[in-house]
Design brief:
This protein is of the alpha+beta class and 336 residues long. It folds into 3 domains: 15-129, Nucleoside Triphosphate Pyrophosphohydrolase (Alpha-Beta Complex), CATH 3.90.79.10; 133-220, no CATH class; 244-327, Winged helix-like DNA-binding domain superfamily/Winged helix DNA-binding domain (Arc Repressor Mutant, subunit A). The protein is built from 11 helices and 10 strands. The strands form 3 sheets. Strands 1, 2, 3, 4, 5 and 6 form a 6-stranded mixed β-sheet that branches.
Length: 336
């Protein structure tokens, strides 16, 4: 005799349930570099990005994200774009601890930095606290030698038929053996470090990796769940996008100097730009116009105040600031 099963659509409800998390990478540019808004609810655990589950009350995914961000940080977001959906099974410890499946949808939001309204658990942090090897503005980061040493050990212990593949991945991602450093590969670099086991969350998540737990790089801060992966995705997206879309102006005040614009682009890209080349590139693309006003807050001679020409959005589809040849140095940075 066949025993009747539970009503259709209700079997294994907990086991088969899919939870959708909406997570926001909220970016601002301060005088000392790019910042990301995080929440620190428990000092015994890593910080987290503003996030929350998709609920029936949310009309759309983006509306749900905006609701959670406003409730948790007080921010009414302006510019928002969807980054990526993270849905791999067992991709982090907190996902494995729950029944069913968790799908995380990451978003990038660009704002002007201000104090979160009445939200003591929210704070601005430099994104280079989480990715110190990404900051080349004053030369090769000091931490890079530690990173490359770990990668070299992973390559050296590779089976003979796999060694060449590992060498190529390291060369492309981290610029070893004289390879060009590609600032857009922030996500690929993080994924490689996770796979090797050089970031602590790989061990926290129980991932199969080469390096032992004590070899993980502790000079960089982590984030809860896979929020550091989502942040790395945002960094890669933004670094690529500033070259062909004028998104950097979403982070600028209504009026700014050329130097302030250059510093913002350098902060986001993590590189130092040639001043004259950058100025020529921006002027050639017609991205800014003179306001007729001057700024005396430059520490030197007064500088012209500019504004973004929004008409450029209608004039052509590709209108980013681009990146002229950058100044690079193989000398490690001094501790910042």
């Amino acid at each position: 005799m066949t025993r009747p099963g539970p009503p259709r659509g209700r079997s294994n409800a907990g086991k088969d349930a899919i939870t959708v998390e909406l997570a926001a990478v909220i970016v601002a540019v301060a005088s000392d570099g790019p910042r990301v808004l995080v929440r620190q609810l428990d000092t015994s655990r890593p910080a987290a990005l503003p996030s929350g589950p998709l609920e029936p009350r949310h009309r759309t995914l983006e509306a749900g994200l905006r609701t959670w961000v406003e409730e948790q940080t007080g921010y009414d977001l302006g510019y928002v774009e969807q980054l990526y959906s993270f849905g791999d099974a067992n991709r982090h410890a907190s996902a494995r601890a729950q029944p069913g499946r968790m799908l995380s949808i990451g978003y990038l939001a660009l704002v002007h930095e201000s104090k979160p309204h009445g939200m003591d658990e929210s704070e601005w942090r430099s994104w280079y606290e989480f990715f110190p090897w990404e900051d080349w503005r004053t030369g090769a980061p000091a931490i890079l030698s530690t990173v490359r040493d770990g990668i070299a050990g992973w390559i050296a212990e590779a089976p003979r038929d796999e060694r060449k593949s590992r060498e190529e991945r390291a060369r492309v991602a981290f610029g070893v053996a004289g390879e060009h450093w590609n600032e857009e590969l922030a996500l690929e670099r993080y994924e490689l470090l996770y796979e090797i086991g050089l970031v602590p969350e790989a061990h926290r998540d129980g991932a199969a990796c080469w390096a032992p737990r004590e070899a993980a790089i502790m000079e960089a801060d982590s984030l809860q769940a896979d929020h550091r992966r989502i942040l790395a995705t945002a960094i890669s997206r933004l670094r690529g996008k500033i070259k062909y879309r004028p998104v950097v102006f979403e982070l600028m005040p209504p009026r700014f100097t050329f130097l302030a614009l250059q510093r913002a682009v350098e902060a986001l890209a993590g590189v130092e730009l040639h001043k004259a080349n950058f100025r020529r590139l921006v002027e050639h693309q017609g991205l800014v116009e003179d306001t007729g006003a001057m700024s005396s807050k430059t520490g030197g001679r007064p500088a012209r105040l500019l504004r973004f020409r929004r008409e450029v959005l209608l004039e052509r589809s590709a209108s980013g600031v681009g990146l002229p040849p950058v100044r690079r140095s193989a000398t490690p940075q001094r501790p910042r």
